[in-house]
Each structure stands twice: as structure tokens, then as C-alpha cells.
Specification:
This protein is α+β, with helices and mostly antiparallel strands. It has 7 helices and 19 strands. The model has no long low-confidence stretch (mean pLDDT about 95).
Length: about 300
């Protein structure tokens, strides 16, 4: 059985689920999932978890995502990107480069962001974009996201186009960021392209195209499988005493005297647990007790 994570470069026009379905068909494995939805127009890093690795998807929540985005001033649309219905246009001739840079500079830190109605979020069991297409009136709640950094790479005042890099927390909508900046500038703006260049451990330069992957032999595909524990960069590391391995596998807690923290955790006190170099699973530490959360390798 193949287990692990593949760093797929999602092509434009595909949904994230399209990629999963393609790999399920190629690998004949039912348990395949992705770690973060990309819009169909977006490209780039889409980590795909296979078999046992699907059990660790929740632990990627703390990973920062990085994007390279393109936008156009003076246009607004219902989807907040260029693929949607154009709602209006506006002259941006009086928008100075300094004003653009100040608007980007202000869009950093922890921010209350309202998700777009054309999104995959669920409302009463139905996708928001489905309701939006049906013309149903509904409201989404704003939520706190973090923009760790953003940088304008290119600004062309002659056509209002901007290319920028941004690093942000899970749940951030770059389309909304662009729309917010357009509103701040008083002329509106839409997203014209988006590439995810990084997601935690995964980088665009190490990714592989899904079509290319599906043309490979099984042994060639295995060369692109990344051990799941290696990718959990925000989880600390615990070394467990040999005599507590069976207890861990059976879901029993271990006292502070039976394990050693060798790397601190950046995510909710969750840790990767090892014994003699073998990855056993994920545990939390509560009141000094090591409590198993996900047992990955029980067959030892």
C-alpha cells in the first residue's frame, strides 16, 4: 500500500477534487485527499495525502500559504476575479503608485476578512458558490486571518496591473484581499491570476504536474512520495521509551518520565512521536501526560 504525500502542481481549470479523482483512478486507492482547496483558475502547490496520510490532514492547519497573484485595478466582478460577471468599471488614473503601496502595506497582520460568496464554504449543508449561482440571498461571517507579508513585484499604471507575493494563514482568500485593496483605493480591483507557490513544507519548485504523474509507473510515482511525518513541520518531536510503544499503540497515555521532547511544537501542543527512528503517530501533551491522538504505525 502506498502511503505518503505528493506535492502536486494543480493545473488551471481543474478543481482540487478533480486532482484527487484523477489520482484515485490512477493509483486505485480510495483514500486520497488534499490539504487546502484551490479555485479552478488557480494553479500551484496542492499537497495530496494518500492512504494513511489522509489521517494527518488536520495538522496542516497551522501552515502558512504563499501565493503569487495578479490583479487589475478599475474592475469589479461578482466572483472578485476576472472570470466572473463584470459589475462595473472605474477610472484609476488618479490612483498614485504611493497610494497603491500604502494600501498593500496596511493589509498586513491579523485582519477580519469576509469570505467571498463564490467560495466552497458550506451554508446549511450547501456550497456557497452553488447558492450564489442560484441567486439565493445569504450571509457569510467574517473571520480572522493573518497576512504575514506581502510585496508588490510589478505595478504598471498604464493598464492598472499589479503582480504581488503574499504569505498568509489558512483560510485567507486572495480574491477578497484584492477586492478590499481595490475598495480602499476607490476604484475597485479583480484578481486575474493566482499561483500557490508554497504551503508549509511544500514548495512550487519541488512540485509535479498531475498529468505527468499519471503517466509514470508505480515505482516512478513512489519516488515523489514524501513520508507524512517529514511534512508536519509545525508539530514538535517526542522520543518515546521503547517500553511504552505498545501502550501508545493501544491508545494509553504515558507519563513525563517515559518520553523526551526533542523539538518544541508550534501547533496546539501536538507532537510527532518516534521510537527507535520509527514514526508512531501524533500525540498531545496535557498536564505532562503524552496522550495519543492518531496512531499511524500500529503494525510493529
Amino acid at each position: 500500500m502506498i502511503n505518503g504525500v505528493i506535492n502536486v502542481n494543480k493545473p488551471e481549470g481543474w478543481t482540487s477534487q478533480d486532482v484527487c479523482a484523477k489520482l484515485r483512478s490512477r493509483l486505485h486507492i480510495r483514500k486520497i485527499g488534499h490539504t487546502g482547496t484551490l479555485d479552478p483558475m488557480a494553479t500551484g502547490v496542492l499537497p495530496i495525502c494518500i492512504a494513511k496520510a489522509t489521517r494527518i490532514i488536520e495538522y496542516y492547519d497551522a501552515d502558512y500559504k504563499s501565493y503569487r497573484a495578479s490583479m487589475r485595478l478599475g474592475i469589479t466582478s461578482d466572483t472578485l476575479d476576472i472570470t466572473g460577471e463584470i459589475l462595473g468599471t472605474c477610472d484609476y488614473a488618479n490612483v498614485s503608485e504611493n497610494a497603491v503601496r500604502e494600501a498593500f502595506k496596511a493589509y498586513t497582520g491579523v485582519i477580519d476578512q469576509l469570505p467571498p460568496k463564490y467560495s466552497a464554504l458550506k451554508v446549511d449543508g450547501k456550497r456557497a458558490y452553488e447558492l450564489a449561482r442560484e441567486g439565493v440571498d445569504f450571509e457569510l461571517k467574517s473571520r480572522k486571518i493573518e497576512i504575514a507579508s506581502n510585496e508588490i513585484l510589478e505595478y504598471k499604471p498604464e493598464d492598472g496591473s499589479i503582480i504581488f507575493d503574499v504569505t498568509c494563514s489558512k483560510g485567507t482568500y486572495i480574491r477578497t484581499m484584492i477586492d478590499d485593496i481595490g475598495r480602499t483605493l476607490g476604484c475597485g480591483a479583480v484578481m486575474t491570476a493566482l499561483e500557490r507557490t508554497g504551503s508549509g513544507y511544500f514548495k512550487i519548485e519541488d512540485s509535479i504536474g498531475v498529468e505527468e504523474l499519471c503517466e509514470m509507473s508505480d515505482s516512478e510515482i513512489e519516488n515523489y512520495l514524501i513520508p507524512m511525518d517529514r511534512t508536519l513541520i509545525n508539530l514538535g518531536i517526542v522520543q518515546l521509551d521503547d517500553n511504552r510503544v505498545t501502550a501508545f499503540i493501544n491508545g494509553n497515555e504515558s507519563s513525563v518520565h517515559t518520553y523526551k521532547i526533542t523539538e518544541t511544537s508550534n501547533f496546539k501542543d501536538f507532537y510527532r512521536v518516534y521510537s527507535n527512528g520509527l514514526f508512531l503517530g501524533v500525540a498531545s501533551i496535557i498536564n505532562d501526560s503524552l496522550k495519543p491522538q492518531k496512531v499511524i504505525n500500529a503494525d510493529i
